[in-house]
Model the fold of this input.
Amino acid sequence: MYFFEWGCWKMQLEREDARKGDEKFDRKWGIKRELPYESEDDEDQAASRFCVSETPKTRGPVYVFSENIIELRSGMWETKRGLITILSLAFFMPVFLYSGALIELIFTFIESLIEQETYKHLLFPVVFYSLMISTIAGVYFKFGLRISRLEMFTSRHLLIRFNRKTQQVHLHRPSYCGGIVTLPWKGVTSSGASDKTAIAGGVGVPLYLYWSPRVTGTLHPEDAWVGKAGNNQAELRDEWEFIRRFMDEGPQGLPRPRITSH
Done:
């Protein structure tokens, strides 16, 4: 699902005056809004050029693997795919229940009119259920639909493509997550390249790639989460070494990954 990438892109587009008072949120989630110094960025980029593992391998999913191209799944919370759908249905469940009750009341109301029976006791529940349905549906379509669409009614995945021939990296994302971007291979930093750039010891997070604004040539950085979530830092080092060797040396000597279509 795209929830994490959508949230990060929204933060990138946030105005500076709207960011005031976000220090507690940043500390809670470990978000660093300050850009690194050029010397630190240079060190991280240099670290990404060295061999970090003797057992390079990718855990996939891999969609394309050829002489010059490797294409992998991207996304922070791919393992949680389906959660937004479940939460959306749970939020909308009262609408289904109230609608069923309202329909039954309407039929009862019509029968009372036909048989000329009293129907005043039905007016309050009909109005109450109508208001509840309208309120819940209105709140959902105004605030919830934009989140539900990040996952519901789509089987698409975020993709990252490494082109060894052109030495470029292509991020394939919907427009509301940053759009399609082409970035240079030289200038990337990786969470699998060193202990300094590691995130959470590699536990529960995919491989993280980062391009600073100096590299992107824009006012904001670019990043991507590649492959499956790791169980330890060693798995992310193996993943990164697989990508690094492919881009710097070629596919020769690398274990051929299993190709998937989903």
Notes: The longest helix spans residues 83-114. The mean pLDDT is 82. Helices lie at 3-13, 23-29, 38-47, 83-114, 120-148, 213-216, 233-248. DSSP finds seven helices and eight strands in the chain.
